[in-house]
UniProtKB/TrEMBL annotation:
It comes from Dulcicalothrix desertica PCC 7102. Pfam families: DUF2288. It comes from the Bacteria. This is DUF2288 domain-containing protein. InterPro entries: DUF2288.
């Protein structure tokens, strides 16, 4: 297992939307599709695997949250997400 993967495993967590709002306000949230593994995406971003990341972006498997999603989450601030911090981003996956 790569060192990056081992380091990122320690950053895997779960969070309520309320805790993620400050990151959303600085446009640092990346929404990861349920079809992808959060850790795999984090490793790809942290290791600059631009080709892999670009494919996910092109296929809309990793996106910035839409205004509609942000609005829905703001009305249910206890909604939970799996999270992974990969500076300067916070990767989130809806639970």
């Amino acid at each position: 297992m790569s060192n990056i993967r081992i380091e990122l495993i320690e950053n895997l967590d779960e969070a309520e939307w309320d805790w993620l709002v400050p990151h959303a306000q600085r446009d640092a949230i990346i929404l990861v599709s349920s079809h992808l593994d959060l850790l795999d995406v984090g490793v790809a971003i942290a290791s600059d695997s631009t080709n892999e990341v670009q494919i996910w972006i092109d296929e809309a498997l990793i996106t910035k949250p839409s205004p509609q999603q942000l609005g829905a989450w703001n009305t249910d601030r206890t909604k939970r997400f799996d999270t992974l911090i990969v500076q300067p981003y916070v990767l989130v996956k809806e639970k």
